[in-house]
Write a structure and sequence with these properties.
54 residues, mainly alpha, transmembrane, transmembrane helix, membrane, Amidotransferase
Length: 54
């Protein structure tokens, strides 16, 4: 696991925590959607950068 893939996965999980927190606080739906798109992109990029796929 490289440093960049680890960083992307950690940032993605941090954003998932933000999604859960913002949903509990009943923040605007568009903000939650924006965070979920960013979290999904970070997680997918981090997983695809893993050495396992080569």
């Amino acid at each position: 696991m490289t440093g960049i893939s680890t960083l992307l996965i950690v940032v993605g999980l941090f954003l998932v925590g933000g999604i859960i927190s913002f949903a509990k606080q009943q923040m605007p739906r568009s903000l939650i959607v924006l965070l979920s798109v960013g979290a999904a992109m970070c997680l997918v990029a981090g997983i695809l950068r893993l050495e396992v796929w080569n």
